[in-house]
Amino acid sequence: MNNLGQFLKEYAHQHNARIAYEIRRNFRTKKVSFANVYSLSLKTATFLRAHSLQKGDTIAIWASNMPEYPILYFACWLLGIIAVPIDIRTTEETRGLFVSTARCKLGFKSKLIAGGFPATVMHSYYLEDLIELVQALPQLDEIPEICPADLAEIAFTSGTTGTPKGVILTHGNFLANVSALCQTFPFKQEYCMLSLLPLSHAFEQVVDFLALFQMGNTVVYLERINQMSITAALHKHMITSVALVPQLLQLLMTGIEREIEKRKQYHLWSGLQWIAGYLPHWMRRRIFYQMRRQLGKHLQFFGCGSAPLNNKLARKWEHTGISIYEGYGATETTAILTINTPAAKRLGSVGKALPGVQILLDPITHEIIAKGPNISSGYFQNMEKTQKVFANGWYRTGDIGRFDTKGYLYITGREALRIVLPGGEKVYPEDIENKLNAHPLVREACVVGVEEEIGEKVHAAVITKYPKKLDEIIHQVNRQLSSHEQILAWSVWEHDDFPRTPILKIDRARVAAVIGGRTEKIVSGELARSDILHSLIAQVKKISISQIKETNVLTTDLALDSLQRVELLSLIEQDVGVAITETRITEHTTVAQLRELMQNADVVPAALPFHALNYQPLIVNLRAWLQNILVFPLHALFVPLEITGQENLVGLELPAVFYFNHMGVMDAVCAVRALPVAIRQKLVIAATRDLWKEWRQFFVEFWGGGFPFDTRQNIKASLELTGDFLDNGFSILIAPEGGISQDGKLQPFKSGIGFIATHMDVPVVPIKIDPAYREIFPPMDEALLENVPKKRKNIWVKIGKPLTFSRQTPIELATKEIQQAMIAL
Question: Which Gene3D superfamilies does the UniProt entry name for this protein (predicted)?
């Protein structure tokens, strides 16, 4: 195999109809098979060639993770085009340097990122629109010859000023690293992986992109990454494993321990953690079953890299029965040099070298140096930097390490981070941090050198829940350190976390600047949330952030309608990690008041009241049988139907949304009876939540297959539930008027039907019921009597042609056209 285009063809054909990628968007889960990835990559290559891009040209990719990202990568590699991925948190100045240095002709960015490419990029597109842009194009039929030495990517790793450092990675580098990883780690095809690290970084490209593509695994992407979205995805997608950085591991563990403290079970948790250290793996999973359910019962392991892992944190996870496999590498090594595996693991080490990789330690400095087919040949157009770290195929990592007797590698420090004391001794911060982080009262520590007149002094910034005990903590740790490593100054870090780099390593320069008083304190979480709120409102309303003021009333000054409020609260939940119920937003709520709600919100709204058992295959089949032998014949005794328009359903792509005019009680039965058996066997009815009372809930759920659709208090949850049913292949029956017509005339449709039609990627089909139906079930004050038929009458039902709408169609226009289609029947 010579190139990544051949890699795509080989494994796409091998795994064919299996699902390669999933992402939750607009309340629906989009799935892309391996075969679709291959087809779309060839079409995207046609699109790129139409923009006059040839082998050796470069394109910039500045976006969050999504299925379109790897598809675009593959399209570039098919043509020999060089990808220039850019981290989404890269500043405008740095981004401009990357793009201009690489001379990118074309750019793709995410809609969720503010800003754009410099003028040197001739054309730019939203990455989310890629599939729509290329869907109608032919597949590329003429593929240029690509050899292993051809460049696949320029991976920029730093460079805020001057010439940025771009690591050049070839097709051969990627193929070698992926092949070695797949030989070493026992990936199973049933694994479902959650992608959290940026696809702009080599670690994610090798592990969650290329290695999993080779093995046929499904990768799940998130539009936005926070603790709530991660936890929800672990459950919903039955995630088995996640590759991440230590900071995300800490985030998840902090969330778990916070919940344990709320339940006043922390002593029990601590005791079980201690006991688990003496138990086999299977028993650990048993005793921590309830805790693991919070993260999804299928989760088996985390793969961890890119930054030093706190051993105390790793042991906590191991004790719960969730394994941790730490690895080590750098962009210059195409991500991975060493890895721990189920067959060969030592906690605290970064594992053993991959096949084909040689690792040595400098005999004097103990610097780690590596050689192998995965090693980059240097930096893009920067011979000076290349010669400093690359020589005769060997790469000097800048990391200090040691081997144990079994060949496991341990990282003990980084040369670039060393602290030089007044006496000339060198101190490596990681050594001290490891001992601080092992202390039971320390959550995380950062050690930096603080400049003084005679040299640097070791200073420890510590995050702890016990600030009054910090002096005692430092004294205890100092007893474990050699004389020159002693912590001579320390302080409590007053924030929930340290500032981070784009790949979530601690930004030591910023920490040192705060400690040294050279910069203002890190912005507080509350202020950051305020800035985020303005940004999210601007995104929903498509206006400038400068137009938003704290005193603006959401409903009047900013004119946020009900669906825009749903969208805003969804974005807040995803980006900020808090959930606000829609009922807390009134017609008088201001931006400042919403911000206050954000600061105080910490719980997810209660789920809609329904029993999931009623929608399982056994009950679904039982319901269809009972409807056919009992419900429909009884209904037909009083409501004989004359059905027209069923020919409009021939070739209809399912699932679909069917909508009807609401003429009276049990009129939905007319619509269900009008549909072919193949459709109604997997059909659910969106019913007003008012029916979820007393005896009606069982009747609506079990006999009718209804689910609660709350348009007043919980629109978002209703839309989420609708999307879940569609994802599981259920078609939806809904009455868009929102209530029974009082005079038999069609009432204005609620905009929710337009939202569903434009956001959920399904056809909508009108079903019109004869207004004379009201004579059989006339409105009555008594709820029970209202369900008793008063006469027998022939009723007609007409089925219209399916309607489809693009995501770009305005909701109001879609709603109007959907209602007009009903009127025209």
Answer: 3.30.300.30, ACP-like (1.10.1200.10), N-terminal domain of ligase-like (3.40.50.12780)
